Amino acid sequence: MSLSALVLGVWLVGALPPGASAEEARGEGPVAPEVLARCHADMERVLGEAARFGSVQRRAQALLAGLSTACGEVLPERLREGAGVAASARRAERSRRLLEAARGFVPEACLSSEPARAREVEALCPPPEDTLFVRPLPDSLDTGSYAFALAVRARLRERGAYDARSQRWVAEFLLRSALDAEAEAHRATRRSD
Question: In terms of CB atoms within 10 Å, which of 61, 138, 150, 185 comes out highest?
């Protein structure tokens, strides 16, 4: 817990109703069952909408665009807004936007914009086992997508909303981001030939 969170928690203690915690007052910690149900339904919707797209690039964009409107009472506005802005950005800009959105939700070691490849930060910021990614990370996965997926995962876990749908969103987003970069590199190689 950060010093500011601790100070805020101590400051709020006098203003909280009996039985309430500082985490609940800040909108952190587990959420009510009906909020979880809405978030789980949102994640199911996002995955379903993204699955309609055959293009890897469009699917990655759809996962981000869908997340921008999902789990409003669970995911912080900054993560949702970052997803919405990044969904329509070009690859380099998308990575930068996702890095900025993830700031504060993952360790600084995960946020390095140089190097731009996630594989180069994974020693300091390893993928959790439940992301279904094995080490080493795909060479084409950018740091922004990696850090953002870890931030979404961390926040959903903190709030008690991380389930099979959320796990699938993280895995799907990481995979589609890596495949999108590979496809872009392939297109660039074909143009130069």
Answer: 150
- Report the predicted TM-score, pTM, of the whole model to 2 decimal places: 0.82
pLDDT per position as a tens digit, 138-181: 999 999 999 999 999 999 999 999 999 999 999 999 999 999 88
DSSP string, the chain: --HHHHHHHHHHHTTSPTT--HHHHTT-S---HHHHHHHHHHHHHHHHHHHT--SHHHHHHHHHHHHTTS-TTTS-HHHHHHHHHHHTS-HHHHHHHHHHHHBTTB-GGGG-SSS-BGGGTTTTSPPPGGG-PPSSPPTT-BHHHHHHHHHHHHHHHHTT---HHHHHHHHHHHHHHHHHHHHHHHHHHHHH-
Contact status, residue 106 vs residue 76, Cβ threshold 8 Å: no
Contact yes or no for 174/131 (Cβ under 8 A)? yes
Residue with tokens 């931030």: 151
pLDDT at 95 over 70: yes
Angle in degrees, 0-180, between the axes of helices 77-87 and 56-67, rounded to the nearest 10: 150
